[in-house]
Amino acid sequence: MPTRIVTRFAPSPTGYLHIGGARTALFNWLYARGRGGKFLLRIEDTDRARHNEAAVEAIIDGLSWLGLDWDGEPISQYARRERHAEIAYALLDKGAAYRCYMTTDEIEASRLRAIETKSRFESPWRDADPATAPDGVPFTIRFRAPRDGETSVDDVVQGIVKFPNSALDDLIILRSDGAPTYNLAVVVDDHDMGVTHVIRGDDHLNNAARQQQIYAAMDWPIPSFSHVPLIHGADGAKLSKRHGALGVDAYRDLGFLPEGLANYLIRLGWSHGDDEIIPRVKALEWFDIAGINRAPARLDLSKLEHTNAHYMKALDDRAVVEKSAPFFARASVALDDGRRAQLLRAAPFLKERAPTLAAIVDAAGFLFLARPLDLSGKTGKALEKEGARALLAEIAGKLAGADWSSPEGLETSLKDFAADRAIGFGLIGQPLRAALTAGHSAPSLGEVLYALGREQGLGRIEDAVSP
RNA sequence: GCUCCCUUCGUCUAGUGGCCGAGGACGUCGGAUUUUCAAUCCGAAAAUCACGGGUUCGAAUCCCGUAGGGAGUCCCA
Q1: pLDDT value of residue A221
Q2: What is the pTM (predicted TM-score) of this model?
Q3: Beta-carbon neighbour count of residue A103 at 10 Å?
Q4: Predicted ipTM?
Q5: Cβ of A397: how many Cβ atoms within 10 Å?
Q6: Which of A117, A128, A207, A236 is at a distance of 20 to 30 A from A309, taking alpha carbons?
Q7: Over the stretch A228-287, which tens digit does the pLDDT of each residue have?
Q8: Strands (E), A156-284
Q9: Are A440 and A366 in contact, with CB atoms under 8 Å apart?
Q10: What is d(CA A198, CA A9) in angstroms, rounded to the nearest whole number?
Q11: Closest nucleotide to residue A411 (Cα to C1')?
Q12: What's the CA dihedral at A460, A465, A466, A467 to 10 degrees?
């Protein structure tokens, strides 16, 4: 118990931070940080071809954007290959591994034979006399896995999982070119990094048994394992390119807030009773591996949007402007100082109805229209009604003397006007809305007027009165 | 083929033997807001708890099997 918790996130650099990986990272981060432990980052680039700086950068960007920080420098598995080889040879010295001189073809043949005879694949070199080894021929180092009995993994999420050793054959731990293999590298690195809790995708559950055997052979303490189910696409199949957005960067570009994505992700496959809105502080307090579900979960964009909308509403007004600016740029809407000021003024109402930052651009559509507004077609229908324009003129008069310092004041003015005339609000609301927004969706009229400001607001009404 | 994992409303889930003739959330549908709307509020439909056995006075909850889905099966991670 007194040992400090150490978790790690170990992605392979594929070019972006996978949405599923982001969730595992989040779980690891939450578990460690919520308990005063350490969270480490390791890049699984054992395979030389995977060693790619740009891809590592993408992962770092993704994690940072999500607000997940790690202790120390990211560790490169590739950089530790000599240490891995050292352990492979240590295993060899202990007799827990052996040199295998089989060629690829021999392995293939032997593998097929094993399947046919329902026996486990075994290298003839496992028990061969080392003296008979060929000279100058490349060899791999194989782990000498126990033939009988079973290996049971005590997994926090999955429970106790038993594997008959007959199903676990002698895996290669060091390739013929001297490079370590995944299962060896993970064990060595996790051990050296002092990882106490391994939380990762359940596609690694099978590996856990093999890795556990290596731990045992080295006499190293076995960490706590938690294998969490993968995230699937809306159709239930494993998430792949055809599902669209895979990397967290794609969700950022869609206008999601890191807080929103994180909240949605943590709720996917994990629960704390009926709680849906779980801000970071609560997540740190509540997160526990025990709450993780064993079944894979599907990604649901609608719910993501709903969750994100919650965090949009909570956004500070200045943040609404700053964070949505890139989305205006992308929509080719130039934001000069004047428009930024307008946007800031409207921010309190816009964020109420925009589920994403990208949606702010649409929600602000009515703001930046140039006078005179295009009131042709369906938009101006409300203005064509008998007496509509005359009524608008009167409203303009009333508004000219109104209090423009708050949306409420303007709303009250309009309501009073309707009450004085003893007419339904709809009668003035419809033409007014048309004059002010030209059919764009917008907040309540008091808010629209306030956001537009006296000059622009009154101006638009004038335009509609005398086209 | 073999080994392992999974299976509660369309989706995410609550639920660890009686409080469940199954609760919440998203979505959907209907209504309200005498002003648009993707916002807000209210309401409704929606799961024979994959299926079949068993244990038990009693099972979504325990056991066995079947089906479907997923992972692994070697010089990928």
Answers
A1: 95
A2: 0.93
A3: 11
A4: 0.93
A5: 13
A6: A236
A7: 988 888 777 777 777 777 899 999 999 999 999 999 999 999 999 999 999 999 999 999
A8: 159-164, 172-174, 197-201, 224-228, 231-232
A9: yes
A10: 9
A11: B35
A12: 60
Nearest to A169 by CA among A88, A82, A83, A100: A100
CA distances from A70 to A228, A237, A312 (A): 21, 32, 27
- Measured distance CA(A334)–CA(A193) in Å, rounded: 49
Which of A241, A282, A303, A378 is catalytic? The answer is: A241
Q: Please report, for chain A, how many H helices and E strands are present, in that order.
A: 19, 12
* Cα(A246)–Cα(A28) distance, integer angstroms: 20
CA of A445 to C1' of B25 (A): 32
Q: How confident is the model at residue A2 (pLDDT cuts 50, 70, 90)?
A: low
Distance between CA atoms of residues A449 and A406, nearest Å: 9
Instruction: State yes or no: is A162 an active-site residue.
Output: no
Q: What is the DSSP letter of A182?
A: H
CA distance A145 to A170: 5
- Say which amino acid occupies A51: H
- Supply φ then ψ for residue A382, to 5 degrees: -65, -20
